[in-house]
Design a protein that fits this description.
There is one protein chain. Helices cover 33% and strands 24% of the residues. The chain is an alpha+beta fold and 201 residues long. It has one domain: Heat Shock Protein 90, CATH 3.30.565. It has a five-stranded mixed beta sheet, covered by helices on one side. The chain has a two-stranded antiparallel ribbon with strand order 1-3.
């Protein structure tokens, strides 16, 4: 009979923090998926995002990046594939940090929206959880902004340009939406909207 071993969560976080400190961001994103084991579809609030930010906190301190979290009270719960959602969050944190090589501010806000009976046409009848990631980095050129979700598109010296494409795919597979806005020299904002309620089967 197969047995399931419960991972030592604190040990995993310690290893992730050590990897961040060494600068190997992609390895952290990979571990967050592989070490959890089988994907878990579960009802949750913003716990996955907080875990990613906790792991990134040491690297943020070294790189002089101030992380601010602003969440409204009583956030709605969402049903998600937890490791996949963590991968999305890690990709967004990674992009933000790389856009601020001289330090800066990174703000994460979360709020519920469109409660039952008040949603607009075409939106989730149970409402949304909206999460916004805002950095004060170098921003994205207007001509590059329409391409950021294209596979293999990148303006970085390191990377293959799959992070945002994968993030968009995962968000949309959850019935959600992702939008990016940016002002060159001022920073970039990424907005995720994920539907509230049990999965539709």
């Amino acid at each position: 009979m197969a047995t399931t071993t419960t991972p030592d969560v604190q040990a995993l976080k310690d290893r992730h923090r050590a990897t961040w400190a060494a600068g190997d961001y992609e390895a952290v994103a990979e571990r967050l998926v592989l070490e959890i084991g089988d994907h878990l579809v579960a009802r949750m609030g913003l716990g996955a995002g907080d875990e990613v930010l906790d792991v990134a906190a040491q690297k943020a301190a070294v790189e002089r990046i101030q992380i601010t979290r602003t969440y409204t009270t009583a956030l709605p719960e969402i049903w998600v594939d937890v490791p996949h959602l963590k991968t999305c969050f890690m990709n967004l944190v990674l992009n933000a940090f790389q856009a601020m090589p001289d330090g800066g501010a990174f703000r994460v806000t979360a709020a519920g929206g469109a409660p039952p009976g008040e949603s607009a046409a075409g939106e989730s009848a149970d409402g949304w959880l909206e999460i916004r990631f805002q950095d004060s980095g170098m921003g994205i050129k207007p001509e590059d902004l329409p391409k950021v979700f294209e596979p293999y598109f990148t303006t970085k010296e390191v990377g293959i340009g799959l992070g945002l494409a994968l993030t968009k795919q995962i968000v949309e597979e959850h019935g959600g939406q992702i939008e990016i806005s940016s002002d060159p020299g001022q920073g970039t904002a990424v907005r995720l909207r994920l539907p509230v309620g049990a999965p539709k089967v």
